[in-house]
Design a protein that fits this description.
Elements lengths: L1 H6 L4 H5 L13 E4 L3 E5 L12 E5 L1 H11 L5 E9 L1 H12 L2 E9 L10 E4 L10 E4 L15 H4 L6 E5 H4 L4 H15 L3 E5 L4 H4 L4 H13 L4 E3 L2 H8 L15 H13 L5 E11 L2 E10 L2 E4 L3 E4 L6 H14 L4 H15 L11 H8 L9
Parallel strand pairs: 1-4, 1-8, 2-6, 4-5, 8-9, 9-10, 10-11
Antiparallel strand pairs: 2-3, 6-7, 11-12, 12-13, 12-14
Helix pairs in contact: 3-12, 7-9, 12-13, 13-14
């Protein structure tokens, strides 16, 4: 009997301090809330000299749902706005192609100025030339969403194991943070874990309230979170926590991040897991890459590898996806962290914002695999 008891797998509560619904009890493994955007990517050409672009469908929250579905074979959903015009059709086609179930509030385009799906303009940079990213988020439909627009109980009917949103979406308008909080409260009421990727973006917050408003909003949201993703700069700027100068400390040194955990927990004792990537960009196409997490009182660090980066956009979402997958599967914290680290690393080798990896590739790299040809 003692041997049988010793062989019993640890529960999520024992591993992470969280109750995560078993797979059999969830219609959706993950429900995300955020804006659906399209990114116009001019590749190595600066946008000012571009003659053609590739179109990638994106959105930090959608990326996580798409990655978890396409690579890891899990059931996911995205809650968002959809505009009835050709760009909306293009986005919807990609949502369905990635295996994500959509829950939309529908908007009609007036043929002139919207409402719109946001456009992100980017180039990939090259070598010593950094990528350049800018937006057109004018009259964005997703920013118009507000509490009461969705029937959360209907969305989560049959069970939802996890609810996720992010700091970019919370920065779009005064109503989007309220909608995130509404979704998180409904998720908790239905037994789901909640997570939030801080993703502080100063450009977006300048439009309504600046840093002071960002901190107010971030704190209100994180009060409802079990898990947060964000580096030390996100913790400082997005939550107003004290820390060291993030520009002067080594990018791969986790001590700064770990030193801030105590400050997080003083304000948010509800948080059980905090995770982030560590990245040092030597030049645009060569990054050193690692990841760290704090789980239920203990700290963990992934290996460091050298990345040959094709397109860095979406790497952080790729990390979050792999990490969440590991937690949902009941892996130990170190193994879950390595899954996130591996998937985020692989995602930077593909064009676009969402995964092209297989779960076998992720597991192989997480276990210490190499780039030897697979025959």
């Amino acid at each position: 009997m003692a041997d049988a008891a010793a062989a019993t797998p640890a529960t999520p509560k024992e591993l992470y301090g969280l109750d995560i619904l078993p797979e059999a009890e969830g219609r959706f493994d993950l429900v995300t809330l955020g804006g659906l955007v399209h990114r116009l990517d001019s590749g190595v050409f600066p946008m000012r000299k571009a003659t053609k672009v590739d179109i990638h469908v994106s959105g930090g929250e959608f990326n996580t749902a798409a990655n978890l579905s396409d690579c890891f074979g899990m059931n996911t959903a995205v809650v968002s706005a959809r505009v009835n015009y050709p760009v909306g059709d293009l986005i919807h086609e990609r949502v369905r192609a990635m295996g994500v179930t959509p829950f939309y509030k529908e908007f009609e385009h007036n043929g002139v100025n919207g409402p719109n799906h946001a456009t992100v303009f980017s180039d990939q940079g090259c070598g010593v030339r950094a990528p350049v990213v800018f937006y057109n988020r004018s009259n964005e439909a997703a920013a118009m969403l507000k509490p009461g627009d969705f029937d959360w109980n209907a969305i989560m009917k049959g069970g939802a194991r996890w609810f996720h949103s992010g700091g970019i979406y919370s920065a779009l308008s005064p109503t989007t943070p309220e909608l995130i909080i509404e979704g998180m409260k409904a998720a908790h009421a239905n037994g789901a874990v909640t997570s939030f990727d801080l993703n502080y973006r100063a450009k977006l917050w300048k439009l309504w309230g600046g840093h002071e408003q960002a901190v107010k909003v971030g704190r209100a949201i994180v009060e409802n979170c079990d898990i947060i993703v964000g580096n030390e700069e996100d913790l400082q700027m997005g939550l107003g926590l004290e820390g060291v100068d993030v520009e002067k400390d080594g990018k791969l040194d986790p001590s700064v991040f770990f030193a801030m955990i105590e400050n997080v927990l003083k304000l948010f004792p509800n948080v059980k897991i905090i995770a982030t990537t560590l990245r040092e960009a030597h030049h645009t196409n060569h990054h050193s890459w690692s990841a760290v997490c704090w789980v239920n009182g203990k700290t963990y660090q992934a290996p460091t590898c050298e990345l040959c980066v094709h397109d860095r956009v979406g790497g952080g979402d790729g990390f979050a996806t792999g990490f969440f997958y590991g937690l949902m599967k009941g892996m130990g914290p170190q193994e879950a962290l390595n899954m996130g680290w591996a998937h985020g690393a692989l995602l930077t080798t593909f064009p676009g914002d969402t995964t092209m990896s297989t779960v076998e590739q992720v597991k192989a790299l997480a276990a210490g695999g190499s780039a030897r040809i697979q025959r």
